[in-house]
Amino acid sequence: MTAPDDQYSSEESDRESLAEIVGQELESLLPFRDKLRRGIAQMGGMFVLAGRALARGVQPPSSFGAIVYQVESLGARSVAIGTLTAAFAGLVIAIQFGFFLARFGVQHTVGKVVVLTLFRELAPVLTALTVGARIGSGIAAELGSMTVTEQIDAVRALGADPIKRLVVPRVYACLVVMPMLTVLADVTGFLAGAWVTKFEYDISFAQFFTSALDTVDESDFLSGVGKSVVFGLIIAVVGCYKGLNVEGGTEGVGRATTQTVAVSSVAVLLADFFLTKLLLTIT
């Protein structure tokens, strides 16, 4: 028979081993818990920053001059990459759908597919991913450099509001720039698609335009433009938040720019899904 003391010590050791296993599992979850907590805190900080920027943008004194400067700085210098991206997107879409529609003998309807795909999805999303990466990383790098060199603290010391002086112009500029670049991408991609179908499938420009314009309406066009406004807000807020919260000197600036591109790209794709569901429900 097992002695009572031996049985008690065996049960005690089993409880200790179970406690060690549970403790090890909990320790393995701690990094994930910390990352989740930081992520939620950052999301909350971005929402607060967005609300403050939008609210203070309509308060006097006016930031119109600074907004115009940021529109030129962020938008005019992004026209080339936005146009090039849209042109190749239109070329690829027209070639792909023209090839598959030719199997069914309806390649003359390729204009319908090209215009709907561009206006509703590809033009706003690709513009946000390509141009937005440039704009967001530039904002994060600029504000991050000001943060590590204590220029932000100097602005506060002078009694000025950093959000009003630095964040508001960039946020409102992105709200203007992204829809403008999206409209440019719509036109560029549409013309590129018409050009490639003319020479690849012998579909005249008139037939392509007629097919497209008979299908698309203002809701298709405005849905893509409306999405681009939300994308612009996301890109600007992420870039400003990362730039204003840089830590670690110049290395931190590099991390902030990289994180801005990653976070804004994922956020744009997530927002596109929910906006698409919402717009399809409304229309």
How is the topology of this model organized?
Layout: H1 4-57, H2 64-75, H3 79-102, H4 110-148, H5 151-157, H6 162-201, H7 205-215, H8 218-244, H9 249-282
Explain what the structure shows:
The protein has 283 residues and is mainly alpha-helical. It has one domain (34-282). It contains 9 helices and no strands. The longest helix is centred in the N-terminal third of the chain and has 54 residues, at 4-57. The mean pLDDT is 82.
Short synopsis of the structure:
With 283 residues, the protein is mostly helical.
Estimate the helix proportion, in percent.
over 70%
Secondary-structure element pattern, one letter each: HHHHHHHHH
- Count of individual helical segments: 9
Q: Gyration radius, to the nearest Å?
A: 26 Å
Distance between the termini: 79 Å
Q: How would you characterize the largest beta sheet?
A: none
Multimeric organization: single chain
Integer count of domains: 1
| Percentage of β-strand residues | under 5%
What is the molecular shape?
elongated
What class would the helix/strand composition place it in? mainly alpha
| Average pLDDT number | 82
Q: How many beta-strand elements?
A: 0
Low-confidence stretches: none
